[in-house]
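# step 3/5: fold
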Amino acid sequence: METEPNVTQAVPFFHVTDITASVRFYVDSLGFKMTKRWIDAGKLQWCWLDIGDAALMLQEYRQEGHGPQRPPGKLGLGVVISFQCRDALAIYHQMKSRGIKASRPFVGNGMWVTGMDDPDGYHIEFESPTDAPEETVFEEGKS
């Protein structure tokens, strides 16, 4: 007897230092859409952001009281979120046109890869399949 899987999606959950700056980065710069939110005392506390079939959640660290407080050290250290897409080169061009400092695309593991850090240092990558040779580096004017 077959049953549907109980787990349907993994959604990265980033605790951030300034939710307004993070929302601006993900929504205005990267093109995510805020589809869920929790507002308490007139302030955005948490949100769910969608892009295509992928999503992530943001919540600001608490200054006091209950909830997660910012840990010491650099946030995002060692964290890489990889979004699989149809055309990472198009996303690279879009980021450049919006003034986002995205890494020059290269081919790794059979995919074009480009990435950038969010305001808290979480590393975001966009990857798409390619037949280009491994370690190829994108050159402007070619694709």
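# step 4/5: annotate
The radius of gyration is 17 Å.
# step 5/5: archive (pending)
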